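TICKET #2291
ISSUE: user wants both folds in one file
ATTACHMENT 1:
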Amino acid sequence: MTNFRTVITLTLLHPTQSVPVQSWSFESESVVRIGRATDNDVIIYSAVVSRHHVELWNNPSGWEIINFGANGTYVDDRVITQVPLVDGMMIRLGSSGPKIRVRIEVADSETKRKTPFSRRLSGSLTADAAQKRESLISRRSRIEKEEAIIYTDEGLTQTDFE
């Protein structure tokens, strides 16, 4: 039996030139957290990024993104709450904030061969995944209360992606 694992790579793009600035890859994580706070897996210093801005969840049916940010998260210039992630998707943290390109691949752990996520068969949500989703909704409510301060689009901070 072949053992498959999902690899997700997030690439922060330069704000004006859309060239890669920094990348992060995750192979075994079930949740990837993005925000300004130091307890996130991906830390992005920007005035429009909330302390705990988004979470990426690896469910049996695939990766999804959940917004917690006070300034919103955008895909195709539309604000999202929770949507499935697609290989090649571009997300923006805040209406004018940092852009992140998403790459999702499935790797055969025996041969180390990678294929695009879109070729992977989708499964249904397990009871455990459904319970995690309910917990997430509760956590989101708590974080929204903590993030009561609405940050304005003041631009980038801390060396603005040198």
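ATTACHMENT 2:
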Amino acid sequence: MLKNAMSHLRKARRPRDPRLTTDTVRLPLPPALSASLGCDAVGVPARYGFRLMSHLPRTGCVFADADRWWWIVPSGSDLDLDWPQQVAYAKGAYVPAARPRLIHQPDNRTPYTPPIPLFLMVCQVTGVAPSWAPAGGERAISAP
């Protein structure tokens, strides 16, 4: 009983501000869209959101919360791309946000924003030179 009471007290003391917690939520895709390639999400500071959306040739599902805009990309879109430090990459589209909401849904049946154009635009708006290999990774594969 004492253990149960202590756990309730601890829960009551936890901060409710989502920026202070490490909780994640999965971004819910509209059921009519096909996500056959799996889903990851790229979180960009909200101040860049409108600029990115207006310059991308095609935009998939985009979610937003107070701090970030989350772009749905195919799983594995972080392979061989060194996303800038200001960007949050969320595997499985599990994002550290309290109440992200869908702010853009594509006209076609795919929820994805093409990752390469998104990567290049994010690098441009953040002032970072694109890097095609992860930091510290090998750039060449040795022949057998």
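RESOLUTION: both attachments delivered.
EXTRA DETAIL ON ATTACHMENT 2: The chain is about 20% helix and 20% strand.
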